## 1
Amino acid sequence: MEAQIFLFQVYSNSIITPIQKPKKPYFISLLSSSSPSSSQIVKPNRVSFKTLYPISSQSESSINRLRCRNRSREVKAVSGDIEDPRTRVRKNLAVFVSGGGSNFRSIHEAILRGSVHGEIAVLVTNKPGCGGAEYARDNNIPVILFPKMKEKPDSLSANDLVTALRRYKVDFILLAGYLKLVPIELVQAYPRSILNIHPSLLPAFGGKGFYGMKVHQTVIASGARYSGPTIHFIDEHYDTGRILAQRVVPVLANDTADELAARVLQKEHQLYVEVAAALCEERIVWREDGVPLIRNKENPNDYS
């Protein structure tokens, strides 16, 4: 009996296919989710790879089975590892300011860029004419006055503030240069959900009266070689809540308070955006001893 000649060709992950008689060559495309069948004749300028001989019907059936198995694995991988952005729930944020609100602006701009998956639902301020409040109004963000002031009939009490934030469906509260002590009613209503940023490396140079330029003047006068912003969860006292994140800024030999403040503020903007993104992505976890940590977005086994 005449011996049969089998030619075998292996390309990438395609199966090994027995071929009997050489015939006129043609092109086939790679297997892909967009292809209607396992083999498809295409124009040469669109070819993904080339075979010299046609494949048998038996081989085509094998390829179809292989393709189905691969597609099944791909679907499982995608559904398990990549979240459809259309199904994610955006977090609602309330931001508290008393001044220009530069951190508030940096977070809002990050939201507009898409790097923070949240919405600023409302701004709270004790100074309705401050720069932060004006920026909020210019961007159609509601403004609430707090605390209660006799000359401002539309200002709210602590309990009314909690009710208002619930009405706006606020998930997290970010203090960004807010100079009033947050009432205990709010702390109890939003446990582990209120963050503050302070312009020194807490627990140093913090507490009642330590805000603004006084912090930087005191840092320089102390001889400290390093400063920088701290983001911490708040409690019922000034600057004593659990520390979440810090950035280090060197204190130079001839620094003025203004120069140091400018460098610290630059780090504040970067750090608060990073923390706001982690907050909205639910990447903040609590260690057993009560220390909050931020899970790394690229490597969930790393924390900072």
## 2
Amino acid sequence: MGKTDPRVDAFIESKAVFAQLILRHIRAIVHRACPEVEETLKWSMPSFTYKGQILAGMAAFKEHATFGFWRSKEVTGTEQAESAMGQFGRLTSIADLPEDTALEAMVRKAAALIDSGTKAPRPLKHPKPPLAIPDDLRAALAANPGAQAAYDGFPPGQQREYLEWVTEARRPETRAKRVARAVEWMAEGKRRNWKYESC
């Protein structure tokens, strides 16, 4: 038997009447299609979990509500799954949702994916193109062989952190200070975010 969460009740009650109707409808369909589902709050929004994994989530705002599956592309088979508004866009009424039988089938498919034990595919990470070293930083590094050696020894991601930090400066004075600070830290063998690294 599934488990409800009083925090979800409170969330729904705090929303506008149109959103309450949508959220209650979604909640009933999810529980009907997957009787073992459990409710919780994730990121302060109602979520449905199944066997310890997130199945779906819903939310409501001033003028619309949203609903989406965690493994959206696999459940719905659409590219629309990447939308921040969930798979069904901005919901302003129950009519914006698929037919109940279709939505129940999607809930069952989401549960079946969890039952299968397969992992959700991870999005492909496209490598970032290399950044050119700005002339002012190149000159400062050339004047300090220790800093240049440290920079050359950093992996591309750590080099990029310094390059982005320097080039994101808006004012020339700020940029000059960042170039000087970067060379100083690199001469000491420090990465850009060395202050936040665990000892």
## 3
Amino acid sequence: MAEAGEKQWYVLHTYSGYENKVKENLESRAQSMGMEDYIFQAVVPEEEETKMKNGKEKKEMEKTFPGYVLVQMVMSDESWFIVRNTPGVTGFVGSHGSGSKPAPLLPEEIDSIMKQYGMNANKPSDFEIGETVNITDGAFSDTTGKITEIDDEHRKLKVDVDMFGRMTSAELDFTSVEKQK
């Protein structure tokens, strides 16, 4: 049995099609409610698939588990309540209702899922401060920025982005940037 205060992975059931919205909502609620030490990251497992559309090949990200989001969190009454009541979340997988806390994924289960998608659940990043990265997701998508801070625990980066000649600091997930080639 895990001790209280240990960060673990849980599976959330969501409305199908709302997985990315749930991920965004969870991350913004963790910040706005001061729960960054309880709610670390949300992951929507997806794979790139090539589809034919109008005779052309098109790459699309397909959700591997539609209707599910993985969340890394420390289970407490408050964090459980906040996550469960996030818009789009219908509940935790492995919870038996009536206020019972869900069972976390086993370390080997989350490692296997993360490996399958080229992610690592607990490995420190291979980003470096001062490194220039391409931003692939969010408001600064298709721009580059320089890393000023790395938070391995929350899997976030602070990146300085040039906006109209002024440097703006953005907090981004590891998954929202890629190293420059």
